[in-house]
Amino acid sequence: MKKIFQQYYANLFLTDRLFVALACCVLLFVLKFFFNWLGEIPEIASGVTFVLLFLDIFILYRNENGIEAKRITAKRLSNGDENPIEILLKNRYGFGVKLRVIDEVPFQFQLRDKDFKLALKPYELKSIHYNLRPTKRGEYDFGFIRAYTGSPLGFVNKRYNFDGAQILPVYPSFINLGQYELMAISRNLTEFGIKKIRKIGQSSEFDQIKNYVGGDDIRTINWKATARKGGLMVNTYTDERSQNVYCIVDKSRVMRMPFEGLSLLDYAINASVALSKVAMLKQDKAGLITLSETIGSIIPADRKASQLGHIIRVLYKEKTRYLESNMEALYSSIRNVVKQRSLLVFFTNFESLSALQRQMPYLKRISKYHLLVVVFFENTELKSLSTEPAKDVEGIYHKTIAEKFIYEKKLMALELKKYGILSILTPQQKLTVNVINQYLALKAQQKI
């Protein structure tokens, strides 16, 4: 009995309207000392207030399931993206109610603003929509849904606690993969920031013989088939398929730097997933290598249906380390695992030219056997600092240093180009688009 009473008492909350009514009753009793003509009015007002209070409690508690609430989410969240969250609410009371709904989101978001106010008509169904943007991979623990319900009398609120406890994993970005699929197959790639690349010559992989239509290259006319059919026939060719595309993700300390909540490692992981998806759509094989002071995970290139899911599950667990990457171990692993010439997209970062020069011998040896693309990052905060006008001598000093680092990044790209190594120097926000753009350009130019 005591437990039941405590349960009801714990979920009962007095409102400001009740305190205002009680304050008015007290005021009437005070005024009665000075104005006798008030008579029994204070007692009547107090009695009406308490009757309304108990009536309010009765009509709220007579229906144990007066409010229903349910949180609807995906089975997993996408890192760095806006993930939609929906709360369904239903009023089972025979009268309209006012609701205050609090959703206990995971502590990682550090949010206290998921507090919604709305009104529901009798037996009405409504939904609340909002978005969450996680910035770290891992498990996110959602808590209760708290719904504070008030009747039209408004003297008390009853709290409903819905056990919406959920633990959702946050995986590398997958929400926008559909957009990148369009990038892989669409001819109008400029809408996505992708340049159209004119093909040099034609692919060596024969596709079919078809009837000539206006605009076909006359150099592809098949004269033997034309003679047999009595009409112009042309050969068609497709991009070469089944080529290996490996994403190499550096997990060393240089990838710990955060931008807009995401670390460089997370940006690289999201881009790797997107590139693997596009490569498989282009009928190439996608693989993965991670490294820090030792080699981490190695997934041999393949294009089977489960390959992308395997890559995502492996990248889900990857974390940055505190030591430098072991390029010698990377070179040995590539020589042992990657047996044929492949496209290697190496996601890393260099903050100084000397750091690049330390790794250059290994990069040159890798590029001797494979088509290597080194992807490293612009420091967008330094770039914004360099564009701001200096207000004093200290500001001039800071701006000069920022411009020096920006210039050094450009020297790194030139240093790589000098040895025939392709590079992408990109801001974090455009990483995925720029990497896919480079891959499609290399496919169009038949360099892989």
TrEMBL record:
Q: Where are the transmembrane segments?
A: 12-35, 41-61
Q: InterPro entries, alphabetically?
A: DUF58
Q: Which Pfam families match?
A: DUF58
Q: Which residues form the DUF58 domain?
A: 209-373
Q: What is this protein called?
A: DUF58 domain-containing protein
* Record's keyword terms, sorted: Membrane, Transmembrane, Transmembrane helix
Asked if the keyword Membrane belongs to this entry, the reply reads yes
Q: Which domain of life is it from?
A: Bacteria
